[in-house]
């Protein structure tokens, strides 16, 4: 069995770095921190509404499969955990600033 030379292997395409979502970049430029928080809160509310609708569809028998319901619940949970972690970090930052001596 012949062995191909290394030069004949095609290289993999270069990976592009991940960029922040467009809404977060625009909010950071336009409205600042409060706008970013409002966008995150809105995304959390939409994820919770989607999860609630998926659960209602499952209970009424309209759900196609259990996987979509589970995925909606997992997305809502991740959104809530992100929101909770942001709250914790903001609280820690506020406490650190309040401990500073003037």
Commentary on this structure:
This protein has about 100 residues and is mainly alpha-helical. It has one domain (about 25-100). The chain has helices at about 20-30, 35-60, 65-100. It is flat, with a radius of gyration of 23 Å. The mean pLDDT is about 85.
Short description:
By secondary structure, the protein is mainly alpha-helical.
**Helix percentage range:** 55-70%
Number of helices: 3
Unreliable sequence segments: none
The biggest sheet amounts to:
none
- Termini separation comes to 77 Å
Question: What descriptors fit this protein?
Answer:
flat; 102 residues; 0% strand; mainly alpha; 70% helix
Write the layout of secondary structure elements.
Blueprint: H1 22-30, H2 33-60, H3 66-99
